[in-house]
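SEQUENCE-TO-STRUCTURE ENTRY
===========================
Question of interest: how does this chain fold, as expressed in backbone structure tokens?
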Amino acid sequence: MTEILVLYYSRYGAVEEMAQQLARGIEKVGGTQARIRTVPPVGPTCDPDTRSIPDAGAPYATLEDLRECAGLALGSPTRFGNMAAPMKHFLDSTGQLWLSGTLIGKPAAVFTSTATLHGGQETTLLSMMLPLMHHGMLIVGLPYSEQALSKTATGGTPYGASHVAGEGNDRPLSAEEKHLCQALGTRLATIAQRLAVHEKTR
């Protein structure tokens, strides 16, 4: 079974819903399953929540989740055109994986949510790609063969899936946003499987 890690941070629930949609897309690919994980919030001193299990939702991620995955979908809300601090804090803890080259050659995709249509979606997606590229991961985007990219009036970019949540964080995912989340998950899982087969036949 090929396992894809869907790792996200969500403050108001939109990115969590996107993670669920990506997982649906991943599990459309036979022989593939999604492992959904989140990261703890951080406080003013940047100390993460010390509880090992959150009160609700997905479990907190560990470095072992990254070691074991065949691919990674990484999601965060936008904070001034960048990923949120809790996700950056977690990624900053992955130095030992970088030293060992654990993630080299694994495919990765990114997704985000903003309050407004021009709220920094693409820069946030790019900010999440940077540490993944330092790890040697292979970045998977959304091609324009996905017609929803050309039709969407809400979220959706070639860099990754996105969502416009509204200033009150009360907008549900649009049909196009759901489709693109699932399409990204399916594409990521398909590429991960192909890479795994290639490695076995080398």
